[in-house]
Amino acid sequence: MTEIPAGSVGETFDAPVLVLVDLETPRASAAEAVSLLAPSRAGLALVAGAAALTRADVVALALGPVGADASAALAGAGATRVLAADLGQAGTQAGVVADALVSAVRTVKPAVALVLSDYHGKEVAARAAVLLGSACTADASDLRVREGALTASKTVLSGSWSTTLRIGGAGTTPVVAVRAPEVEVPGPAAPVAVEALDVVLTPESLAVRVVSREPAPTASGPDLAGARTVVVAGRGVGGDIDLVRSLADPLGAAVGATRVVCDEGWLERSAQVGQTGVSIAPRLYIGLGVSGAIHHTSGIQGAGTVVAVCDDAEAPIFQMADFGVVGDVTTVVPQLVEELDRLRA
Ligand SMILES: Cc1cc2nc3c(=O)[nH]c(=O)nc-3n(C[C@H](O)[C@H](O)[C@H](O)COP(=O)(O)OP(=O)(O)OC[C@H]3O[C@@H](n4cnc5c(N)ncnc54)[C@H](O)[C@@H]3O)c2cc1C
Asked: Binding residue per annotation — 324?
């Protein structure tokens, strides 16, 4: 499925496009956390996709310290302006992030503001759109400019229908939460100067005070929303997440989960893929012991190749799988891992 068609020739906006980019700590550099914050891969892909929508500036907004490397990465992806607001710990609260996005919209006056369609991004988009009095949609993909307006594809009714939306309204900037786009991100370029953004905080945001913070346990591996390969654990793995990782790790894949797996506490809630979890668009999705309930598969509509290993030949996952193995994960996964080892040797 095509996401934002990076580099495609088509109608474009005359006005800038604003993209909210998450900053994250590269896993290998946790010790030097703050100075080494880098744009997330999904955020860079969003910037790369946004470049196809406008002839004007592609403006990246990052909430945190943006160093030369981060700016170079954003410039390589296609950002021509970089705005940064270092709001410290408060910069992770959806209300504060929405305030920052609104401040950036008022500064840049973009045709559209894009955020990533994960839990956090959807809340930020909704809050910002309310403050701006503008249109908002989430889980959008395949963004295009048609007759001067933004259009996007979106699946509805748990993925059973695909719709095309026209988003916007006269004189307002729509805020769109976009599914992790699957586009090639060019490497770093000459960094662009980072402009400090003044954020006007609303009384509602100021009223929220974070009294404590406890990091949730996270699945190892790359970021789920932007990963090219995702291995998803279903109930059929019986809580054996090591088995799932034994396949995910050699593939460099992110580990996702069905809701059952999160309900059981086998993986953290942020790993949940589906209607009430994260929507993903990897090139390769591998479901292990996943039945393929529509609440789950609605979150993988953007996946390229779908591979399923499940012991029930009647499971709905096989209706959308490109490759399916009817078998026990405890038998099939070690064979897959062994074959990967053999191919690498
Ligand atoms: C409003 C709502 C929202 C929801 N949102 C989500 C969501 O966001 N994401 C989500 O995932 N779900 C969601 N659900 C739940 C969803 O409907 C399913 O219940 C869930 O996806 C099933 O997860 P599963 O495939 O792991 O489990 P199951 O449906 O139980 O499937 C497990 C599969 O594994 C097979 N199996 C068992 N043992 C083995 C083995 N050893 N080897 C191989 N295969 C084996 C079984 O035969 C079965 O086919 C939602 C439900 C509702 C009502």
From this structure: no
Superfamily the domain 229-344 falls into: TPP-binding domain (3.40.50.1220)
Q: Is the CB of 244 under 6 A from ligand 1?
A: no
Q: Is 228 annotated as a binding residue?
A: no
Say if CB 111 and CB 15 are below 8 A apart.
yes
Q: Is residue 4 annotated as involved in ligand binding?
A: no
Residues 6+ apart with CB under 8 A from 131: 98, 99, 102, 202
Residue 260 CA to ligand 1 centre (angstroms)? 6
The CATH-assigned architecture of domain 17-206 is: 3-Layer(aba) Sandwich (3.40)
Distance CA 345, CA 342 (A): 5
Give the three-state DSSP class for 326: strand
For residue 235 and ligand 1, the question of a CB distance below 6 A is answered with: yes
Question: Tens digit of pLDDT for each residue in 292-337?
Answer: 999 999 889 889 999 999 999 999 999 999 999 999 999 999 999 9
Instruction: Please give the ipTM for the structure prediction.
Output: 0.99
Angle at the Cα of 38 (from 132 to 241), degrees rounded to 5? Answer: 100
Domain ranges of the chain: 17-206, 229-344
Residue whose Cα lies nearest atom 18 of ligand 1: it is 293
Task: Tell me whether residue 296 is annotated as binding.
Answer: yes
Q: What are the tokens at 174?
A: 């729509």
- Same topology for domains 17-206 and 229-344, yes or no? yes
- Please say whether the beta carbons of 290 and 310 come within 8 A: yes
Q: What single letter denotes the amino acid at residue 260?
A: V
Closest-CA residue to 18 (of 45, 54, 42): 54
Question: What integer pLDDT is reported at residue 69 of this predicted model?
Answer: 94
Please give the Cα distance from 147 to 143 (Å, whole number).
13
Both tokens of 100, joined, read: 């920052």
Q: How far is the CA of 297 from the centre of ligand 1 (A)?
A: 10
User: Quick one: which atom of ligand 1 is closest to the CA of 274?
Assistant: 8
